[in-house]
Amino acid sequence: GExxxxxxxxxxPSTRFGWQLVPEFHVSQNPERASILELLQIRLGCGRxxxxxxxxxxxxxxxxxxxxxxxxxxxxxxxxxxxxxxxSKGLEFTIFASIVKAMNQKEHLSKAxxxxxxxxxxxxxxxxxxxxxxxxTRILRGHTPNTDQDP
Length: 151
Description:
By secondary structure, this protein is an alpha+beta fold. It has a single domain (2-140), classed as Endonuclease I-creI, CATH 3.10.28.10. The chain is built from five helices and four strands. Strands 1-2-4-3 form a four-stranded antiparallel β-sheet. The radius of gyration is 17 Å and the shape is globular. The termini are far apart.
């Protein structure tokens, strides 16, 4: 299986800055090993198991997902702080935990706090394969029209 600590940056016009941060812990596994995901769900006492539909119809993998911020703080982060990762994902966890804790302190509600958390999120997971775009320009510049583009 494969696990990840991830903070998605999603456009949401109803939020203060037009974007939102969505922290998520997930572990994917082939259906033959669904019991591993079930054990993880029981151990952490939260989250849900669903098909990994985002990867296309040929992907039969299942994914265990935790998005609830309270569960992330009190169960997922608490678990990995008590049982530190020995792999390269340890750094990703540290950044992830920092972002979730800052959001718990409502730091994402100020422009400076939001901008700082976006910067941290953009540097997670090897700068992310979907982060080749200049996200800083797209997200952090706010709602100012981009005059550099042709009409």
